[in-house]
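FAQ: What does a ligand-bound record look like?

Like this one, built around NAP:
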Amino acid sequence: MWGMGGWTGSDDDESRQTLAYAIARGCSIFDTAWAYGEGRSERLLGEARRAHPHAPMVVATKVPPRNRRWPARPDDAVADVYPADHILASTEASLTNLGLDVIDLQQFHVWSDAWAMDEGWRRGVRAVKEQGLVKAFGISVNRWEPTNGLRALESGLIDSVQVVYNIFDQAAADELFPYCQAHDIAVIARVPFDEGSLTGTLTADSRWPEGDWRNSYFTPERLGETLARVERLQPLLPEDMPLPELALRFILEHPAVTTTIPGMRRVAHVAANVEASDGQPLPVRTVDALKAHRWNRS
Ligand SMILES: NC(=O)c1ccc[n+]([C@@H]2O[C@H](COP(=O)([O-])OP(=O)(O)OC[C@H]3O[C@@H](n4cnc5c(N)ncnc54)[C@H](OP(=O)(O)O)[C@@H]3O)[C@@H](O)[C@H]2O)c1
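The answer part, i.e. the structure of the complex:
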């Protein structure tokens, strides 16, 4: 639900319709954050949750870093990022935006393992759980740093990790996934379409309105390389399977993956994306071939 909170082209009425449709289709996890429009995305999710109190929904949100620096840097003092009182205050702010009494999954929006041994964040996490404000707590690890969270997982306080994992970004499968499997930690695979490239809808002329962050992700140079890589996937598409479906099925193939959270601003996208949840596996040869399309970035 990042797009709903801040990308250009979002419309709250369309978001409301999309959320209602997703709930009706059985979509069961919704990932927002205070930072997605400073509560805008959370308010939309809260409205939808309250309108469907009996739907099997996991409401997931995130604590922003107190210093508001994305991504985290190892030399940021943890006391400036996640002191216990900030974790509590931010959770209360999110509960207000959501209009709910409890958050199913609260997550750190940034992380650096330089902070793993700090007692402050541990106290904060214990407090929000013990006060019944939060049922589970997770870490959203920085893009392209899937192992930068492993030390924090050893605390035993972390129930889930959210990590970039898709046909291009496969590094999470090296160390993080086996660790999570061994320790019963949920894996939320985020950015399944590489922010849009793995939907096959981008072209060399793709540009976004000024201020849209995708201009800095798909710089002209990176866009060119990305499109060439997307093109090389075409021969691997099984008959009648569009690229977005292949992208989602590749992610869901991995046994460590608990769920994946594609951007969900449009009803048509949700309609297409939930179809990949039918449990049907891809041919083994396709999965093996896709592994060769891994793209190591930093
Ligand atoms: N640090 C963090 O914790 C963090 C960072 C990034 C993302 N996330 C979470 O992960 C979620 C997903 O990532 P994302 O939204 O950034 O990227 P994404 O899911 O990889 O890609 C989103 C893009 O794919 C398009 N799309 C979705 N389904 C489609 C379909 N079936 N066919 C064609 N296009 C489709 C969307 O279109 P529209 O533009 O039309 O909507 C959007 O442009 C976020 O919404 C957020 O909840 C978390």
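Follow-up question: can I read anything off the structure? Yes, for example: The pocket of NAP is lined by residues 1-3, 31, 109, 140, 162, 190-196, 199, 201, 244, 261-263, 265-266, 269, 272-273 (CB under 6 Å).
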